[in-house]
Amino acid sequence: MKSIVQIIQERPWVGWLIFGLTVVVVFLAGLLATSIMERRGETAALFQMVKPIADWEPRNEVWGENFPRQYQTYQSTLDTTFRSKHGGGAMIDHLEKYPNLVILWAGYPFSWEYNQARGHYHAINDIRNILRTGAPNETTLSPMPATCWTCKSTDVPRMMKEKGIGEFYKANWKDWGDEVVNPIGCQDCHDPKTMNLRITRPALIEAFERRGKDLSRATHQEMRTLVCAQCHVEYYFKGKEEKYLTFPWDGGTSVEAMEAYYDAIEFSDWTHALSRAPMLKGQHPDYEIYLTGVHAERGVACADCHMPYRSEGGVKFTDHKIQSPLNSIAAACQVCHRESEATLMDNVYSRQDKVIELRSRVEEALAKTHIEAKIAWDRGATEAEMKEVLQLIRHAQWRWDYAAASHGGTFHSPLESARVLGSALEKAGEARVRLAAILERRGVKTPLELPDISTKAKAQAYLGLNMEKLLAEKKEFLEKVVPLWDSRAAERQGKMNAD
Amino acid sequence: MKSIVQIIQERPWVGWLIFGLTVVVVFLAGLLATSIMERRGETAALFQMVKPIADWEPRNEVWGENFPRQYQTYQSTLDTTFRSKHGGGAMIDHLEKYPNLVILWAGYPFSWEYNQARGHYHAINDIRNILRTGAPNETTLSPMPATCWTCKSTDVPRMMKEKGIGEFYKANWKDWGDEVVNPIGCQDCHDPKTMNLRITRPALIEAFERRGKDLSRATHQEMRTLVCAQCHVEYYFKGKEEKYLTFPWDGGTSVEAMEAYYDAIEFSDWTHALSRAPMLKGQHPDYEIYLTGVHAERGVACADCHMPYRSEGGVKFTDHKIQSPLNSIAAACQVCHRESEATLMDNVYSRQDKVIELRSRVEEALAKTHIEAKIAWDRGATEAEMKEVLQLIRHAQWRWDYAAASHGGTFHSPLESARVLGSALEKAGEARVRLAAILERRGVKTPLELPDISTKAKAQAYLGLNMEKLLAEKKEFLEKVVPLWDSRAAERQGKMNAD
């Protein structure tokens, strides 16, 4: 048998062939090994400012000139078509869908109008349109303090800088009507020089400070949740005059800890028009409930699911169309979960359905409780008899609201929501046990025949609300006052452009 | 520059070096590619029978001669040391831990004694020891039918073969005392020739047939759950005489579907000694609750977590120490979950704690309801007044028991458990609202001063139970009757060996 050298001597191309094959094989092996071992580093987020952005610049379109992808996706939050089995597209009228809520909020403007939350882009319009901000004009005030603007606009940090935080809050809502005009956007979460995430709302920083935590030490991944926690939390307006935005977290963020906080300072948002209970209105404790769920436990930030990474023309960026992850399951969920879209959607809905079932049971029980308490008062129940009942109602409804008012809580932490709703059911039941005895003592047979509150209109009529008047006043406000606000703002912003 | 052929001509070892390196590189590339693309097939479960096993062989040690690893791990279920924050080692006395249960089961033998389930190895001893099987002797019967043996022993399929299924069930429990002596084991789930999984208990097959499903078409992975579902389910004894073991699944396996099934046939396990409600005793609907959880949804079988694969001396086998996966997190959980042992353990307990909190609220409410109903009867409440109350009590306690009696339900499906417990709380509350009115009408002030039922002994004393008598009778039974059973069984099994 010839040696390889002999063969190569006779046919030199064989040598070249072997050499060439070796090169190819080694090259392919190298490619293979690289493709296995490589951990693709996140592309560094390089950017070049086309036009520098001023500190506290509120106009999203100015930021957008530098960041077209982020701005375009942000703009698309205008589209609120939501892929949901509960029906998408139009904004849901919660009072129409769940008329018991009218009863639960009797004596409080939420019983007038309460709609599904829409995208950040709509924040200014929605707060102007909603009945509970009233119809202020030159001579009348809004029933709301300026604190209500805090989470609605990129103009807020600018105004706080100009007026001072305390002064900003304690004005009337109408006072800043021509100043606060740009909806939630870039400036709320980003530093205009470095684009780093930053906290612009003092309440979150102050709440952390009171618990001995320094927010400036938060990691980038933590900030991807904390910028949302500036607003998506439970809060109240502290002080009769000051209306200082405050998070009730001093004892912790659990439903029990916040309840204890409010009890200790004897705070109540309003006195219930039927039961006369000193009520708490839960805001949207999204962050607090999220903390109790598995995604938080696994280090998943709000932005991971609500602002997943996208890739366009080889550029990776964060999708600024903040929306339900169900609208982008592939980008949001399937990064971690290997199940099909349909399965993941079913998984979300099956959890939500179970919690919503419990929530509806509580709403039913609470509506009965308020009405029974009203009858008890009407029949001469004494303060002493009712004291414990009112406290049970306060706690039951607070717990219900903690679970109900949170955006997405039924998915963020279904089990914690169910636990809290269960405790609400128990407390409402205890209140009703006492009410049954009080009523029976006065010859009122229980269970009572309840009034017809099967639609929003019927429930509002039961409360004697003059909805026509409220709607007419609001209409006039929107037609006469709001255009003035807008033209003054446009003039001011025109000057900003000229500067 | 010299050509490669010239170099090789001058120094032939260079040619060999290049050739050798090529061979090495190609070989390594091959290894690498193989190691990447290979999906390690499961080692075929080859076995060689040392000694053939007869059909319906009940003795686990006979099977064990052929399958030492499986048998040894099975034997270790003798050890019930359970790694749990709730305390391990000794069998938990549930009545001592949750004295409300004594009240919930008033008039039913569960109020005498109810202990934590132990390993399969203990099944025969535990059913002999428990007070509710009574103290039968030559002249007296057990209060229980032979149906109670069905899930306790490998002797059951043999006896059903010998006596017939219906005849097996309808005997008295004591009738098979010397026949049913080998605890749950090999024969219950395996075919002695092929070791394939098989269903040996007719109730499961019958329940599937009634729903038009053919169990013989189940896949191996499904069988790894279904063999457990022979016993770990909700069931009842159908027929006053027949006591035929039946699963109430004709309308489905949800808590509502089974409740509707029992209501439709007007079945009740007993009449409550205090409230006189027609009660249902939930068995252990482990399979039913598991079906509603995420592990079932993802195709995970009972055996995947409770009998994970182990490897010993290169042999892969199924661990037959059936136990809490918390005792073997690495083998059971970390196959899929990448979190640390401590994290996974916390995750399990945090879910369980929330459900147990709700469960305790329901127990508290139910105990009050039964006692209030008793006072109502004592004060002359009428059947008409009480009718709705009793139905509410029946449903509330059934729903509680569905969630409470299930082994591991608080983890298998925490949210479904919470949903069901929430509905129990609502129904108990509704019952108490009606009871408050009934009591008040008779001048009884509510809320009532409740009796002291803070310990098992106090709760049993409140019910007027003569525990000393029950314990003395059981002692005599264990000392006099059981040894007879064992010696007769030994004699019979000795003959089997001689055959």
Give me some keywords for this one.
homodimer, 499 residues, mainly alpha, Flavocytochrome C3, Chain A, domain 2, two-stranded antiparallel sheet, 23 helices, globular
Secondary-structure topology with pairs:
The structure is a homodimer of 499-residue chains.
Chain A lengths: L3 H7 L1 H26 L22 H7 L1 H8 L18 H4 L2 H5 L18 H7 L25 H9 L1 H6 L15 H4 L12 H9 L9 H10 L6 E3 L5 E3 L8 H10 L5 E2 L6 E2 L6 H6 L2 H4 L4 H5 L2 E4 L2 E4 L10 H4 L8 H38 L4 H23 L3 H4 L1 H28 L14 H7 L4 H32 L1
Antiparallel strand pairs in A: 1-2, 3-4, 5-6
Folded structure, characterized:
With 499 residues, chain A is mainly alpha-helical. Chain A folds into two domains: 4-45; 60-498, Flavocytochrome C3, Chain A, domain 2 (Orthogonal Bundle). Chain A has 23 helices and six strands. Chain A has helices at residues 4-10, 12-37, 60-66, 68-75, 94-97, 100-104, 123-129, 155-163, 165-170, 186-189, 202-210, 220-229, 255-264, 286-291, 294-297, 302-306, 329-332, 341-378, 383-405, 409-412, 414-441, 456-462, 467-498, and strands at residues 236-238, 244-246, 270-271, 278-279, 309-312, 315-318. In chain A, the strands form three sheets. The first copy, chain A, has a two-stranded antiparallel sheet with strand order 1-2. The first copy, chain A, has a two-stranded antiparallel sheet with strand order 3-4. A two-stranded antiparallel sheet of chain A has the order 5-6. In chain A, a hairpin with a 5-residue loop joins strand 1 (236-238) and strand 2 (244-246). In chain A, helix 1 (4-10) crosses helix 2, helix 3 (60-66) packs across helix 4 and helix 18 runs antiparallel to helix 19. Residues 39-45 of chain A have low confidence and may be disordered.
